[in-house]
Amino acid sequence: MPGTEPDDPTRRLVRCGMCGRPLTGTASRRTGLGPACDAKLHPPAPDIRTRRREADQDPLPGI
Asked: What residues have CB less than 8 Å from 41, skipping those under 6 apart?
């Protein structure tokens, strides 16, 4: 398709807002941040299931 090649001279150069590197991916160009810089600003949410663990408990007396 014309206009979709990265080396196409008619395509406007978009640079990362943090580091200034040229952006090539559609999502990166849309957000204005490269994948590495976006990961620095928006780290993935912690997985709550990995932080849980079962506690070892003694049985209650009399039950």
From this structure: 18, 33
Contacts of 34 (CB under 8 A, 6+ apart): 16, 18, 19, 21, 23, 28
Question: Do 17 and 37 contact (CB within 8 A), yes or no?
Answer: yes
The CA distance from 4 to 23, in Å, is 13
Q: In this structure, what DSSP letter does residue 1 have?
A: -
Secondary structure percentages of the chain, helix, strand, coil, to 5: 25, 5, 70
CA torsion, ordered 16, 19, 24, 25, to nearest 10 deg: -70
pLDDT (tens place) for every residue of the chain, 63 residues total:
455 555 566 778 999 999 999 999 999 999 999 999 999 998 888 766 655 667 777 888 876
